[in-house]
Specification:
Length: 214
């Protein structure tokens, strides 16, 4: 079509219609994962889904919400050192579009020095980033029985320290702490129930969407 004819046609179209057409075209983020992306969820019992059935663990629910193929590599009782030992084999066996790391709770419960946990977490991020540019870290709340009772758990500070310093990962803050602060969403003092894991998945999906992953 000649340019003159195109301009004549556009001149007869109301400005509001042109505006609506432009607004309807949402530009995809350059950082967005493909719809069937393969995602590794590396973590401990909170990732595994302790306190609920496997199909209600948050990696499974996140897959349902996003369409991603989320592999649950959560191990009950695992520590940052254990996750660091397991990660190379996982990365050599498969190719992942994104890696979600949720580890450190057992370090705190077992009295592992914060310095060691920070070092391990930094190494996990480094290895994950060598595999994919999409790396996120889920902060775990600092264990505090009294704060759990009154529903005011907060993330352990070393997550922000490590992730902020590296600048190589997305920090997913306040998800575990908000869910585990609600007694109705817990199966015990430190684990979620099926409803709680669904909340984790929902909040995680929202934060990843805000970051442009979806």
């Amino acid at each position: 079509m000649k340019r003159r004819h195109l301009l004549q046609m556009l001149a007869g179209v109301p400005a509001s219609a042109l505006l609506l057409s432009a607004c309807g075209k949402r530009k995809a983020s350059a950082n967005a994962l493909k719809p069937d992306a393969r995602v590794l969820a590396l973590g401990d019992s909170l990732t595994f889904g302790y306190g609920a059935s496997p199909e209600t663990a948050w990696p499974a629910k996140l897959g349902e919400l996003t369409g991603w193929q989320v592999e649950n590599a959560g191990v009950n009782g695992d520590t940052s050192a254990g996750a660091l030992e397991r990660l190379p084999a996982l990365l050599s066996a498969n190719s992942y579009d994104a890696i979600l790391i949720g580890i450190g709770g057992n370090d705190m419960l077992r009295g592992v020095s914060p310095a060691s946990t920070r070092e391990n977490l930094a190494a996990l991020i480094e290895q994950a980033r060598a595999h994919t540019s999409h790396v996120a870290v889920l902060a775990t709340p600092a264990p505090d029985a009294m704060r759990a009772v009154v529903g005011s758990l907060s993330d352990a500070p070393f997550y922000e320290e490590v992730v902020g310093k590296s600048g190589q990962a997305l920090l997913v803050a306040g998800v575990y702490s908000s869910v585990l602060s609600d007694a109705a969403l817990r199966s015990d003092r430190i684990h979620a129930n099926a409803k709680g894991y669904a909340q984790v998945a929902q909040q995680l999906a929202e934060q990843l969407k805000a970051a442009g992953w979806r």
